[in-house]
Design a protein that fits this description.
By secondary structure, the protein is an alpha+beta fold. It is about 40% helix and about 15% strand. It folds into 2 domains: about 35 residues, no CATH class; about 130 residues, NADH Oxidase, CATH 3.40.109.
Length: about 190
């Protein structure tokens, strides 16, 4: 039932956001995934707390190994601190730092943190927001773990930048080109 409700929400959000789709399958989830991109053209229109709450809720619902949910989310809205982590941050943007906890067995949380980040990326995109995943600047977040109030035992793994974007730019004109399927997929039959 929850899956049907979530799928219906995605359908309504995709239809409501009016995003340009370069490909269409007729399925709202695959259409959203095929049209998603990581924009760089953010506006200064602030992301609302309600939008961030929905994005985080979608992150919480991500699958994880043995349902360990080894993540913690830090929602960063302080522009000065954000600029210390990502220099070209736009006012009104939000950074969500996803931190992971190493399990007692020694398993790392990186894959699970990646899954939750992807859930939040898709959620933000479905809401008509821009989202961009950052791995490189995570070292700066690690250095600021106290200022970011990251709980003991957790380490920043990845970040998601979320912001409003110029509606005139779409995935066709604004996204980086993708490799051809033939270059990266082979079939063994």
């Amino acid at each position: 039932m929850k899956t049907r409700i979530f799928s219906l929400m995605i359908v309504l959000l995709v239809l409501g956001c009016g995003s340009a789709m370069s490909q269409s399958t007729g399925n709202p989830v695959t259409d959203l995934l095929l049209s998603a991109w990581s924009p760089r053209n953010y506006t200064e229109v602030p992301v609302t707390d309600q939008q961030i709450d929905m994005i985080v809720q979608c992150g919480i619902k991500a699958p994880s190994s043995r349902n360990g949910q080894p993540w913690h989310f830090t929602v960063l809205k302080n522009e000065a601190v954000m600029k210390e982590i990502i220099s070209n941050i736009t006012p009104g943007n939000v950074i969500i730092v996803i931190s992971g906890k190493v399990s007692q067995s020694g398993a790392t949380p990186d894959f699970d943190c990646g899954l939750t980040t992807q859930n939040m990326f898709v959620a933000a995109t479905s809401m008509g927001l821009g989202a961009r995943i950052y791995g490189g600047p995570i070292a700066a977040a690690r250095e600021k773990r106290d200022a970011l109030q990251i709980p003991e035992g957790f380490t920043p793994v990845i970040m998601l930048r979320v912001g409003n974007i110029e509606k005139s730019t779409d995935a066709v004109s604004g996204a980086s080109p993708r490799k051809a399927k033939e270059e990266i997929v082979n079939w063994v039959r």
